[in-house]
Amino acid sequence: MKESVKKITYHGIYIAFCVVIGYIFFAIPNIELLTLFVFFGGYLFGKIRGAFIGGISMFLFSAMNPWGSGLAYPPLNISQVVSYYIIGFAGGLIRPLVNMSINRFLKSLIFGSCGLILTVFYHVLVTVFTAEIAGFDYQKMGIIIIGGLGFAMVQIIWNMVTFSLLIPALIPVSNRIPALQYVDR
Predict the structure, then answer these.
(1) Is 81 in a helix, a strand, or coil?
(2) Total-model pTM
(3) Which of 59, 94, 115, 178 could cysteine-pair with 160, CB 3.0–4.6 Å?
(4) For the chain, which domains are there?
């Protein structure tokens, strides 16, 4: 099989994995693993491929959402896709900064910070983008952001904890997967 076909296949399989993993905690609001695995996809496959994985994964996850397709409200879908594009890109961006020889605590701190920052970014971007399109002024947007903060905090804390615990544990495991050895980060 051609090398380019293998790469496309691996990316397709990883995107499908991300979409499916997004539904694991689907019934629990703001508890999810999609963000973590999109970020980790960027970490594994690099910035550009990570961005692609993030955007496509979120588009499919949002479009096929059984509680209401994101396609019904395009501004929401666009802001989600852009956010996850950036989350996947960030995973590839952080890889060269995280030296494999640093201790696990520091890795956990770095990845937990990434989870916190990226989840806050996601919530702000989605809220601002949809509120702007809906015609709210900046004062009302601030009220919406503050009003939704408690709801968003669940996902922010969840992602901070899961990023800090799971990504350092997934890195050594991913290094042993032969299919991932082709990756030219």
Answers:
(1) helix
(2) 0.91
(3) 115
(4) 3-182 (1.10.1760.20)
